[in-house]
Design a protein that fits this description.
The structure is a homodimer of 515-residue chains.
Chain A lengths: L16 H29 L6 H19 L2 H10 L2 H4 L4 H19 L2 H24 L2 H22 L5 H9 L5 H25 L14 H15 L6 E5 L5 E3 L6 E5 L6 H19 L16 H15 L3 H14 L1 H4 L4 H8 L13 H19 L8 H13 L24 H20 L3 H6 L4 H10 L9 H9 L6 H14 L3
Parallel strand pairs in A: 1-3
Antiparallel strand pairs in A: 2-3
Helix pairs in contact in A: 1-2, 1-3, 3-5, 6-7, 7-8, 9-16, 9-22, 10-11, 10-13, 11-12, 12-18, 13-15, 16-17, 16-18, 18-22
């Protein structure tokens, strides 16, 4: 975290009374939101099962107070004033970013009537329950009516939020401000191409990667300690963080950069799950911990977007955390956690095992080569749903056909197919941010290797601080001041460009599979 | 918890529009307060050290929102209407209790100006820091100015809150509604007498209790598991609770009866600390979990007062949890947790050890005979401070003289004397509720033994549910509907009467020390 010289950090023009009043209002909203995030963290880590209903009431009350704050007339008036060109000219980038984000939330809160927001929450809760049961019982028909309901609700939300080209853009913009599906189509085309091609070349090569060294009997308590050790090695600050267990790993913040926590979920028989989740969540957490302390208690502290966030979790997890130089520098952590198991496993074999490519049905188990194909399938289907181009009943067939086409395999059950992810019980527009993250991440990684010609050597020596400090200084410190595309351009010198990912992926897997 | 028939539970007259509006407002306040309680729980159990400052900001923001809610004009208008005799006649006891508590909070919030409340928070924080250092360095002089500041602030608060007889009453009333120092003087006199007399008789008897069986090497993880087992045996519902570790054991609720959690702090070398803390906190938790679900999300869900709360923690800890019948029924929990250590320790020796009487300097380590003397010393001193009868500089001397007089021992340092407790860094009026709890508890225990002639036999068989169900039905379910004195009368048939405690203590320790 940048605790050094706040004079060098992005900052607000507090001397302007309107900025200062906006800040007061944003502090209040950020503080209340942080308490909500804490309640969600508790829900996922410690809350007893019998408290679910009352916690729901508490969260609804908090949402109500936040809605009241976000729709205040005084806020509207203040934003109108601050958006005047004459005022803007004298403002800092941080001011402008704050005003932009406040406007986004004000607009969203006023454009979506409270009844719609409440209906959305109700439908999401019921749809989630239906999805959970449908997945357990492999019963898509039971989930279908809820999916149809979600489609029509999301279309209504898109209409109310407004859009230029397609309804889908309005939903996407919630998670990735400024992004549109036409931009995505351009960005994703080469990704789809390189992934499919590489997969075919790997399968044709006849070379295999053996990942049996990652399997065994790994005590979960020791995996928790190992996760902590790996996170410390990355530079994660435990004095401003915490590590817990939850069924699905996640990262959250109760006031970046000062309180950023994460979870992992060790699998007793497969060490990769906890180690790579720790590095992935660690990437998210480093991003939040790197946010300039001058931005604290505002909506622009933390990450710029879901895609920007995923760029950091994936950069640390894949570009760094699945590389041989990184593990040459850190392998003693693995060996001292499980000395017997890894005594005769060389670091090269360990790293190779982390990079096994295998088309699979399940997104969250996918390797770097196939991962984006899973995302592209989902993106194509959800865009069609939102744009009204598909009947719910035909979705499982479309899903299976796309898996056959892109990955060469087809799920035998909908549970392992269209029902595998929770996302569609809530809404649409989120999935593409995973692949955007991979693209931004590869582009930033490319930049890092240009800046540090001795990048690999330093990783091999166990160094990581050089890399973290650079990312903090050039990216993390700025929080959500800039829109994600602009941020990528500021960090790397060019707008998002998929060629960096294409080149990274090709070089890496040509090497590993000796193509 | 009373999950049975809500028709038999205390309830609100929702058909009255004014009651229903009051309930809506109370739900909102209770939900926000619960999120604050969750944040405090987190602060004491998981929060990283570097998050202290931002958490302080978040709590201050929440207090601001709550203050805004408590001082709303609409609430004032509503209370005025609901307090009309003509309206009251048609209301339930639950309605009346809710109106009374809402009025208390409204009055407090409007009588204390925001600047005073903020100053109080600042002085408390600074005074706490000063106290912590003063205790570490045995340096009362450094704490003295903060204590003086606290005295004058608390006097101002008392003046603003208002009182009939003495300023001290206004402060006391914050924790024990309806209680006054003249009532306390009457209640405490026989307690002081019996404690001092019994202590002298025990010391003169030459009989000793050997508690070496409680000392040893007890793995903390196993103590946590043992605490859980003991709490389950008492009837604590883990599906609506949770057990964590914190430096000082405490119980808290995020919506009684549905989410009530507690902490313990195992001492590796002294098993009594965690076991008796679990039972003590368990008593608090059972009281909260027993609150009628019909009262949920209101300020009268939970306990009636600090004294009423302490009556239950002490009833379970001392009257039940330090009795031979209880341990005859539960001793297998101790033995199976630490089989080797307790293989040759009989349950009689174990229970006797839990009842060792020894005048000590430290309140929280005190036995049942001397405990109230520690409280009475503090009560006498803080009453004198608030009523302006004593100079801060002379307090350590007065403290030591009172210890010499009441307990026959004198601290060699202020750290083990006047600086031992945190309370006076925050304010005054809390201490007497500990002894009130002991009195109420003994009186309720007496009633229980009347109701259940086979009380001991059932405990010896390992039963506890009969006792918990009775307490739930006759006391816990009512939350804070009644003022504490009225509640004691409803439960036991008479107003608080110290003779029950006097008789309980005398009989018990005459037996143990063979007097």
């Amino acid at each position: 975290m940048l605790q050094q010289d706040t004079a060098l950090m992005p900052n607000f023009t507090r001397s302007d009374g309107r900025v200062s009043e906006l800040l007061d209002r944003m502090h209040e909203i950020a503080d209340l939101s942080a308490l909500g995030a804490l309640a969600e963290w508790d829900q996922n880590t410690e809350m007893p099962e019998g408290a679910g209903e009352i916690r729901g009431d508490q969260m609804a009350t908090l949402q109500g107070v936040l809605h009241e704050r976000w729709t205040s007339e005084r806020l509207s008036h203040l934003l109108d004033q601050l958006e005047h060109a004459s005022v803007q000219a004298n403002l800092s980038d941080a001011d402008k970013g704050l005003i932009r984000e406040a406007r986004r939330s004000y607009d969203r809160s006023t454009k979506l009537p409270r009844t719609l927001v409440e209906e959305l929450a109700r439908v999401q809760a019921a749809s989630f329950e239906s999805w959970r049961k449908a997945r357990t019982n492999n019963d898509f028909a039971n989930f279908a009516p809820w999916l149809a309901r979600t489609i029509s609700l999301q279309r209504e939300i898109a209409d109310r939020l407004g859009f230029v080209e397609t309804r889908y853009d309005a939903l996407l913009d919630q998670f990735e401000p400024g992004m549109t599906s036409s931009k995505i189509d351009t960005l994703f085309a080469p990704v789809r191409e390189v992934s499919a091609t590489l997969l075919k070349r790997i399968q044709a090569s006849g070379h295999a990667v053996d990942d049996s060294c990652l399997q065994g009997d790994f005590a979960q308590e020791k995996q928790m300690a190992l996760s902590e050790a790996v996170l410390r090695a990355m530079g994660y600050e435990l004095s401003h963080g915490g590590i817990a267990r939850s069924p699905h790993p996640f990262t959250t913040s109760f006031g970046s950069p000062f309180d950023v926590r994460l979870t992992v979920n060790p699998d007793q028989h497969f060490i990769q799950a906890s180690v790579m989740a720790a590095i992935h969540e660690g990437g998210h957490a480093l991003y939040e911990q790197g946010s300039a302390p001058t931005l604290v208690r505002t909506p622009i502290a933390g990450g710029a977007s879901m895609g920007a966030h995923e760029s950091q979790s994936r950069l640390w997890e894949n570009n760094v955390g699945r590389s041989l130089p990184f593990w040459r520098g850190q392998y003693q952590l693995i060996r001292s956690a499980f000395p017997e198991h890894f005594a005769n496993v060389e670091v090269e074999a360990f790293t190779r095992a982390l990079n096994k490519v295998q088309p699979s049905l399940i997104r969250i188990e996918a390797d770097e080569v196939t991962y984006n194909l899973h995302i592209i399938i989902r993106y194509e289907l959800e865009r069609a749903m939102v744009n009204g181009e598909v009947a719910v009943e035909s979705l499982p067939g479309m899903w299976n056909a796309k898996y056959r086409e892109y990955l060469g395999i087809e799920p035998e059950t909908d549970s392992k197919g269209i029902l595998q992810d929770v996302h569609w019980s809530g809404g649409f527009g989120y999935f593409p941010t995973y692949t955007l993250g991979n693209l931004y991440g590869a582009q930033i990684f490319h930049k890092l290797r240009e800046v540090f010609p001795d990048f690999d050597t330093r990783l091999e020596k166990g160094e990581t601080a050089f890399l973290l400090r650079w990312l903090e200084e050039h990216m993390y410190a700025y929080g959500a001041i800039y829109l994600p595309e602009d941020l990528v351009k500021r960090v790397t010198g060019e707008l998002p460009n998929p060629e960096h990912f294409v080149r990274y992926l090709t070089n890496k897997f040509e090497g590993i599979y000796n193509l």
